[in-house]
Amino acid sequence: MKFVDGRCVTRRYSSPGGFDVLVSSQSRLYAFGDLPFPHRAPSRTSDRLTVVDVLGLGPRQRVGVIELKVLQLLDNQVVEIQGASMELKCFEVCDSTGQTALSVWDRLISTVQLGQCYTFCSLTTRKDGSRTVLTTTPSTLVTATTGVGQPSSLRQVTVVAEEIVCGPATAVKIVAKPRCPRCHAGQDQLDVKCSTHRCESNICSMLQRTPAYLVTYSGVLIVAPRDVNERSMALTNSAVMGFVKEFCVACNVHDGPALEETIMALPELVVSVNAEGLVVHFAPAMAMADCSLGDIPDAEEASTSYLLED
Question: Is 198 exposed, middle or buried (CB count within 10 Å of its CB: 0-12, 13-18, 19+)?
Answer without folding.
Answer: middle
